[in-house]
Amino acid sequence: MDNVNGVELGVFVFFIAVVTVVGFAAARWRRGQTILHLDEWGLGGRSFGTFVTWFLLGGDLYTAYTFIAVPAAVFAGGAMGFWALPYAAIAYPIVFLIGPRLWSVSHVHGYVTPADFVRGRFGSKALGLAVAVTGILAMMPYIALQLVGIQAVLTVMGVKGSGLARDLPLFIAFALLAAYTYTSGLRAPALISFVKDTLIYIVIIVAILYIPTKLGGWGHIFDTAQAALTKTNPVTHKPTGSIITGDLNQWAYGTLALGSSLALFIYPHTVTGALAAGRRNVIKRNAALLPAYSLLLGLLALLGYMALAKPDVAAAVKAAKNPQLAVPTLFDHVFPSWFTGVAFAAIGVGALVPAAIMSIAASNLFTRNVYKAFFRPEASPAEETRVSQFVSLLVKIGALIFVLAFDKSLAINLQLLGGIWIVQTFPALALGLFTRWFHRWALLAGWAVAMVYGTVTAYNQSSPTQKHFGQSIANIPFIGHTGYIALTAFVINMLVVVVLTGLLKALKVPDGADETSPSDFLADAKDPQVQDLPELTTG
Amino acid sequence: MPHKDAQSTRPVVRAVVAVLLIAPFVIYLAVPSYAKIKPRLAGFPFFYWWQLLWVILTAVFIGIAYALTRNGGGRTPARDQADEKGE
C-alpha cells in the first residue's frame, strides 16, 4: 500500500460512509411513522410510484456492469463490447409485455418471488424449485461482477499489495458488502438509490461533457481508438478489435444483445423491484422511461474508447493486464483528485447497493421456495429471517469464489454466465404469463437439458488467459456462426418443451393444477382481490 | 391471450402496438445494416449514433404503445383516471 492517493481515498471513504449512514438513518426514522405515511413514501410495499420505481429498477441496470464491465469490454474489444447498448434497448419492449402481467398475477396471489408464480401457475413445486435454484445460482456471478468493480476502484486508488495481500481490495469489497447487507432489509437500499443515482448522474454528465474536450473531441477519440484497436497483438498476430463489428462477429453481437434482453427482467432482483410498484401501469410507464438509463449506458461504454485514446491511461491499463481498470484509471488521470474520489464513491455505492439487493433476492428465493417449501413449512418469521441472513452470506461467499476462480480479464463474462442460466427460466416464467399450454414436466425437462448444455458449453470455452469458462459465446450448431450460449440453450430448451408437451398431452399424463385465472393477469390496484406484498420491502 | 371482456383494444390498435414493439428488435438485430463508419454525426461513426438514436426511438415507441393500450390493460375505464391522479 505504498502509493495510496490520500485525497481520493479520503473522499471515497467519506461519501460511502455518508451515503450509508444517511440511508440507514432515514430508513429507521421512517419506520416510526404511521402506515399511511410509509405508504406515501412508497415503503409500505405497495405504492412505489412511477418515479420511485424508475430509480429502483434503474439501480438494477446501473451497476458496476455499466461503469466498469461494459467500458472494459469496449476498451479490450472495440465494437464487440458495445452489444450492451442494443441489449439495454430491446429489453424494454419485453418488460412492457411481461412486467404488467407479472405484477397483476403476483398481487392477486401474493407471489413475492418468480418461483412463487411458476409453482402456482404450473402446480409444480419441483418447477418452482428449479426456478429458485437457477435464480440463486445466476445471482452469484452477477454479484461477483459488483465485487470486481469495487476491487478495480480500490486498486486504482493504490489499495493493493503483493503476496497474500494481493487480493486485499477484493476482501475489503467483500467485507463492505457483507456489512451493508447484514444491517438492512430492502428499505435502506431503496432510499440510498436516490443518493446513489444522483451521484452517478453528476459523474456521468461531467465525464461525458468534460473528458472529450480534453481529448480533442469525439471524432478524434474514435479515430485514435480505431488506430489502437487495429494494431496487431504481438501474441496472436491479429488486431484486437475494431470500432465497428466485422463479418465474423455480427451474429455474436446480435445474439448477445437478444439473449441478455431476455434475461434482464427475469432476474430475481429485478422482479422484486417491479413487484414493489404501486400499480400495473407504473411498470408500463417505466418500460418507456428506463431507456433513459440505456442512453447513458451507451455513452459510458464509450469511456472505454476515451481510455484507449489517452496514451498514458491505455499504457497503464495494459501494463496492469486488467481492462476493468480502464474507467477508474481514466478518471484518475483526467479529474482532480477530489472529484476522482467522488466518482469512485459513485462507482462503489453503485456496486454495493445492487449487490446487496441481489443477495437479499437470492436468499429470499432460498427461504421461501426451498427451505419453507420443502423442509420447514411451519418456520416462524424469526427463523425465516435467520435463514435468510445466513443464506445471503453464503451467496456472497459463492460470489467471492466466482471472482477468485474465474478469469477477470473480462468481468462482463461473469454477467453473461449468469445470463446463460437465468434465461433458461424464461419459458416457465415469462411465456407462462401468456400461455398455460406447456406441460410442467416438459418445462422441467427443457430447463434441465438447457442448463446442462449451457453450463457444459460455457465450461469448454477457453480464452488466452483461462482454460475453462473463457468466454460466453460459442459455435451455434447447424448455423456455423458464433453466438451467445444463452440463446442457443434457450432454443434447445424451447424445442424440448414443445415436443415433450405435445407428447405428454397425447399420452394424457396428468398436468399440474393452475391456481391462476385469465383475469388475474389484468388485475390492477384497487381491484378487491389485489393485495399488498409487504414482504417485498421489509424482508 | 385475448380475454373477452378485458381486452377492449381494437385489432388495428393491437397491430400498431405489435409493430411498435417489434421494430426495435428488427433494427438492432440487423447488425450488418449499421456496421459502418460513415456517415458520421458530430464525430460519432454511424454504428454508434444510429444505435444511440434508436434507444430514444425505442422509448418513444413504447411510450406510444402505452398511450394506446392504457385503456385495454386495466379492466374498467374508471381505474385509469385514478391512475392519472396517482402520479
TrEMBL record, chain A:
Compartments reported by the entry: Membrane
rRNA-binding recorded as keyword: no
Superkingdom of the organism of origin: Bacteria
Membrane topology term: Multi-pass membrane protein
Subcellular location, principal: membrane
Cross-referenced InterPro entries: Na/Glc_symporter_sf, Na/solute_symporter, Sodium:Solute_Symporter
Bilayer-spanning residue ranges: 6-27, 48-68, 74-98, 126-144, 164-182, 194-212, 251-276, 288-308, 338-366, 387-406, 412-434, 441-459, 479-504
The UniProt record lists the keyword Transmembrane: yes
Region Disordered, residue ranges: 517-539
Entry keyword set: Membrane, Transmembrane, Transmembrane helix, Transport
Gene3D superfamilies, alphabetized: Sodium/glucose cotransporter (1.20.1730.10)
NCBIfam families assigned: monocarbox_MctP
Family: Belongs to the sodium:solute symporter (SSF) (TC 2.A.21) family.
The protein's name in its UniProt record: Sodium:solute symporter family protein
Organism: Actinoallomurus vinaceus
TrEMBL record, chain B:
Superkingdom of origin: Bacteria
Keyword Membrane: yes
Spans through the membrane: 12-35, 47-69
Keyword annotations from UniProtKB, A to Z: Membrane, Transmembrane, Transmembrane helix
InterPro entries tied to this protein: DUF3311
Name of the protein described by the UniProt record: DUF3311 domain-containing protein
